Amino acid sequence: MIANLELVIDICLLAFLIMIVFASIKITDLFAVTMLFGIFSFVSALLFLDLDAVDVAFTEAAVGAGFTTVLMLSALRLTTRFENVKHRHSLLGLPIVILTGAALLYGVADFPNMGDANAPIHHHLAPDFIRLTQQKIDIPNIVTAVLASFRGYDTFGETVVIFSAGAAVLMLLGMGHVERKQEPEKNLILWVVVKPMIALILIFGLYVQFHGDFGAGGGFQAGVIFASGFILYSLVFGETYARKVIPATILPRLSALGVLIYGVTGLMSLISNKPFLDYNALSSNPVGGQHLGILLVEAGVGLAVFSTILLIYYSFSGREVIHYE
Q1: What's the pTM value of the predicted model, to 2 decimals?
Q2: Do 293 and 281 contact (CB within 8 A), yes or no?
Q3: How many CA atoms lie within 13 A of 24 on its CB side?
Q4: What are the helix (H) ranges across 272-285?
Q5: Which run of H or of E encompasses 57?
Q6: Cα(138)–Cα(146) distance, integer angstroms
Q7: Are 150 and 131 in contact (CB under 8 A)?
Q8: Phi, psi for residue 82 in degrees, rounded to 5
Q9: Radius of gyration over alpha carbons of the chain, in Å?
Q10: Nearest to residue 232, comparing CAs of 317, 159, 294?
Q11: What are the extents of the domains in the chain?
Q12: Per residue in 170-180, pLDDT tens?
């Protein structure tokens, strides 16, 4: 009975997401479309949560529903609210959409059904990860073991990609500057309500950062949550005050430092004649070395993600407003 109810709820959520997609295509009010995108991301996070992918749900809720929505509103502030309908009915993109959709359907046609006990992953990768996590790393959260240790090369590449994205935005847009007239008007009630909320967000970010060994969380999620707290501070109290707390000039350095922490952790393994990112070299006790290595690389990831997201936000929000005719 419960399983059938969950299936009905999932189908309803998927139908709701499809309705949002078609509504976003038809609506010309870009502010409304941005709100719909935020709702789409939040509902997607609920679906991930239902699939027990709590780490992904964290990231989707914070990045998709939170940061991306604010970033799109910041970009919308630089243009106009309504879409230019001059080329709205152009069908040039339709063949590309059809080909992409056909390729995706072809690619997933031979995938095993969700939850299939005979799927290859349940007979090859998953048993090895479970066994090796208990033997060599000894942490309860296998997801963290896979991301930070078994798949450490891939995670290092993702961290470099995040840093590169921030560097690209910085080179294209710069950091901008904030005038006093751009600051929001003082709202005493909002200030009183948001102050303790920001403190709770930052504390929760610390919890997610250091609880990743035992439950859902880690550097990616913690970095996004920390950045969300400072973005909320900027939206409520004004970007002038936010830039005094976290100056824009130090964000590129913090982002580079996060990548450097991750890379140096791997170099320490090489110095000890071990493979790159082999944390066993960090301690005489291999399990202790794994714990220390995961702690260091997760700290680097969190620092890189936090500073890059805040850097991108500063780049958009600090741009001069252009009024189009």
Answers
A1: 0.81
A2: no
A3: 14
A4: none
A5: helix 54-59
A6: 12
A7: no
A8: -110, 145
A9: 22
A10: 317
A11: 1-83, 124-325
A12: 888 877 666 55
